From TrEMBL, chain A:
<protein>
    <recommendedName>
        <fullName>DUF3299 domain-containing protein</fullName>
    </recommendedName>
</protein>
<keyword id="KW-0732">Signal</keyword>
<dbReference type="InterPro" id="IPR006311">
    <property type="entry name" value="TAT_signal"/>
</dbReference>
<feature type="signal peptide">
    <location>
        <begin position="1"/>
        <end position="35"/>
    </location>
</feature>
TrEMBL record, chain B:
<dbReference type="GO" id="GO:0004035">
    <property type="term" value="F:alkaline phosphatase activity"/>
</dbReference>
<protein>
    <submittedName>
        <fullName>Alkaline phosphatase</fullName>
    </submittedName>
</protein>
<keyword id="KW-0460">Magnesium</keyword>
<keyword id="KW-0732">Signal</keyword>
<dbReference type="InterPro" id="IPR017850">
    <property type="entry name" value="Alkaline_phosphatase_core_sf"/>
</dbReference>
<keyword id="KW-0479">Metal-binding</keyword>
<keyword id="KW-0862">Zinc</keyword>
<feature type="binding site">
    <location>
        <position position="243"/>
    </location>
    <ligand>
        <name>Mg(2+)</name>
    </ligand>
</feature>
<feature type="binding site">
    <location>
        <position position="135"/>
    </location>
    <ligand>
        <name>Zn(2+)</name>
    </ligand>
</feature>
Amino acid sequence: MTRPQDPIRFRPDRRACLGGLAALLALGAPVPALARAPALTFDELYASYGVLGLEFSDKVKLLTGKTVSIRGFMAPPLKAEAQFFVLSEIPMALCPFCSSDADWPDNIVVVYLDRRQTFTQPNQMIEAVGRLERGSWIDPETGFVSQLRLREARYATV
Amino acid sequence: MRNLFAMLAATTFLTGAAQAATIYPLDRATILVNSPFDFKIELDEVHPEGDLAVTVNGKPYAEVFGKPAEFVAEEKGEDDAALGSALILRDLALAEPGQYTVEVKAGNEMKSVTWEVYSTAETAKAKNVIFILGDGLSVAHRTAARIMSKGMTEGKANGRLAMDDLDHMAFIGTSSTHSIATDSANTASAYMTGHKSRVNALGVYADRTPDSLDDPRVETIAEALRRTTNKAIGVVSTSELQDATPAAVVAHTRKRADKAEIVGMFHDVQPEVILGGGSAYFLKADIPGSKRKDDKDYIQLFKDAGYALATSKDELAAAAGSNAGKLLGLFHTGNMDTWLDRNQLKKGTVDKFPDQPGLVEMTKSALDQLSKNPDGFFLMVEGASIDKMSHPMDWDRAVVETIELDQVVALAREFAEANPDTLIVVTGDHTHGVSLIGTIDDNRPGDEMRQKVGVYDEAGFPDYVDADGDGYPDSVDVARRFAIFASNYPDHYETWGPKLDGPFQPAVQNENGEYVANEAYKDLPGAVFREGNLPKDNDTAVHAVDDIVLQAAGPGAEAFKGYMEQSDVYKILADAFALGTVQK
C-alpha cells in the first residue's frame, strides 16, 4: 500500500458547510419517514456472497422501489461536489487508493440526498431513509459503481 | 581569485541556462539484451523537430536504434497545460551488449544518460525459479515468526524457519526513482523488470503525461519468458490478483489502481496458473460484486482461453487433477482473509467466503500444475497480508502470515530437493517500521497497561503454545505475548493485545480528509490514545526505507551477495534462466 497518486480529498467550502448545517438544524427531530420506513440491515442486503457475484436478498428484492431505512456510518465523499455519500457497515478507514470505488467493501449502499445535509463525524452512526434502488449503476459525474442506492434520501444521527 | 570568480560565473551561467531534459530509461538503467523497451525524451520547452539532436555513443540515434522515433511537437498535461516537446520510440530492443550513452541537445536543453545492456549466460543454470515474496517482510516479522512458531529456550531458538537455511543472502535497497521511500508497485516491478520506477508504477517509467497507460514500457519477466522460452508462468497471491505484486509480473501502467486494465494484461500474457483474490475485476459491470465499469466478462474470456476455473478450496483440489493445462483460481472478490481469520478466529470476511484455500495449498496446486511443463517454470508467490496487516499494526495477524509464508518456503525447498535445478528466492518488497521489543504480560503488576510491558530481563519468553505441532500457535490470545510496536502511526488507540474481533482498523477518515482514531477501540480495557506522528492524511502506518534481507538457494543463488538494488535482482533471474538467449 502507499499514498495515492492523485488523492481526491474532500474540502468542504464554507458556504456548503453552513448550508448543510442549516439543513440539519431544519431537520430538527427525526424525519417522520424514519418511524414508518421498513428497516434494512447490512446483514440483510445479500442472500449470498460468491466469488462469481453476490445475490440480492429476497428482502432487498421485495423492498426495491420502496422507502426504507438503513443504519450505518457515513464515509467522507469522494469529491466535494459529489451528490452522494457511501453508507458502510462499520466506520471506514479508506485505503490510500480509494480515490475511486476500487477498494470499497462489497456491502456498501450509496445514498443520494434529496437536499444538502452536513457531513457527520466518521465515528457517528446515522440512519438514512430513502427509496431503495438496486442493480449496477455508474454515477455519471464520478464514475462510481454501486449496486444498491437510496434515492431522495435524508439522514439523521442516531 | 579573478579566475575563481570567472569560473564560478561560468558555472552559474551554465547551470542557469541549461535545462534538463528527461530521458527514459533513466541514467544507469540496466537492460536485458534484445528486451523490448520504450525510449522517450521529454524536453522542458517546445522545440522544432530540426533543433533536436540525439546521439547514441556519438552516432545519430536512428542509426544505432535502427528506426526513427515519433516526434511530439508539444505534450499536454492536466487541463491542457503545455509540457514541451517529446520524442518517443516504442519497442526498441538492443541486440549488442555494452554501454549506451544517449545524448540529447535541443536549444539550451541538454541531457546525457548511460545504459548498460547486458547479456546472460548462454545456457540456463536453473530450469525453474520459485520467487517467494513476503509483502512488507521485515526482520521483526521473521524474528517474531521464529519465536512464535518454534519457541525459544534459554535464548536459543528451538527450531529454524525454512527461510533461515537458504544458503545465500543479500541486503536489498528498495528506493524508488523519485523518493527514498517506496511502495509495492514499483518495488515488485523492479524485481520483475530490472528497472526501478516511481511509486504507483508497474512495468513503466513514470512519464509526465496524465494518461496512465502511455508511459514508457519495459519488459516484464513474463514477457521475457514468453519471448525466449517455453516455460510455464505462475502467479499466486493472497491479495487481489490486480494488486501491485502479482500485477508486476505482467502489467504496464503508471497507476496501480488501474485494476480493471490489469486483468486485461493478465489475459494478454496468460500465465498458466493464476491463483488469488480479486474476482470483482473479472466480473462484468452488471453483476453485483463487480468492480468493472464495462461489460467485459473475464471469467468467460479466461475459460475461452482454455483455463479451468476454481473458486473454492475444493475446486482447487479438483482442478489440480485436470488436464486443462491452465488454471485460474479466484477465491475472493477482494483480498483473501488471513491465516488467523481463516483458521482460528473466523473473523474478517470468512463468513462470506468460508472456502478460501491458504497460500500453502495454492502454492502446492501451482507447483503440481507448473511442473508438468517439461521446459520448467517461473512461479511468483506473494504472502500479501504480511503487509496488509502491518499497515494497520495488526501484528499478530502479520506474524502468523509470516509463518504461513515460511511454510510456503518449506514446500518450495521440498520441491527443490526433488528438482535440484530449481532456484528459490525469498525476499520482501519493502520493510515496515516495526520492532519486537519484549513482551506484554497481563500478570505483571501495575494499573496501566504500559506497566505490563516487559523489556530487557523482564521480557522473558512468551506463552505461545503449538501443541498440535502445525507450526502455528494454538492461540495468539495468551497472557504473556509479544510486545511489537510501530515506529510510525496515525492517531489510534493502543489496545496492547491481539485483535480477536477482526483485523485492526486504527484510524478512520473525518469530513476534512484527516484520519482520526477509530473510537471502536476506545473503551477496550486498558486502551490508551496514541497521538499519531504521521501527517493526518495517512490512514495507517507506512513503509520503512530500511533494506530487506533476501535469501536464496539453488542454481544461480550464489550471485546474491552484499548490497544490491532491487533492480539488480532481475539480472540474476535473467541469468539463471539465460534470458539473453532464445531457447525455443
